[in-house]
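Supplementary Text 2. Reproducibility record for the structural model of the 186-residue chain.

All settings were left at their defaults, and a single model was retained for analysis rather than an ensemble. We include the record here because the model underlies the residue-level annotations in Supplementary Table 4.
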Amino acid sequence: MLKHKPIQSKLMIVTLLTSAVVLVLTCAAFFAYEYYSFRKTTVYQLSVISKMIASNSTAALAFKNVEDAHEILSALQAEAHIRAGALYTEDGKLFAQYTALDSLVNVPATLPSGQGFEFANSMVIAIQPVVHDGIRMGTLYLVSDLDAIYERFTLYGAIVIAVIIISFFTAYIMSRALQRRLSKPI
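Retained model, structure tokens:
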């Protein structure tokens, strides 16, 4: 393919290919870092929210007050990405639940096993023990979507495409000007 091309064209192709590879690798590294960073930030934010809700839920679980539990869980509507939340008794039975109005997430009737955070099906699931004075009162279950990362990646994708086009055009103009100086003596 390049065998029968003039040296000017070969230099231009090599310069543009090198620029394209560097841009693609840089953008891929940027996206990977953003994805990792977003997951870490999401876990931190969900951790803070779950600790606050769990702390506020101790009395409702201790006194078996379902109305207070529903009121506490309704505070989750302030965070747009939380799709559902539930409080479970110490024996794992559903005590109270919250579901966002437009959510399709179903809260399990019994507490799922595990503790901590799990990423699954474009969601983050947090399972936080509700503890008071060292005694486990129950468990808080939260489900948050990952829509924020998809919105961010859509914006970043548009920016990356614009940067690649502008960079490629700039590399083309520069290589065209510079290759004349290099290839003319040859």
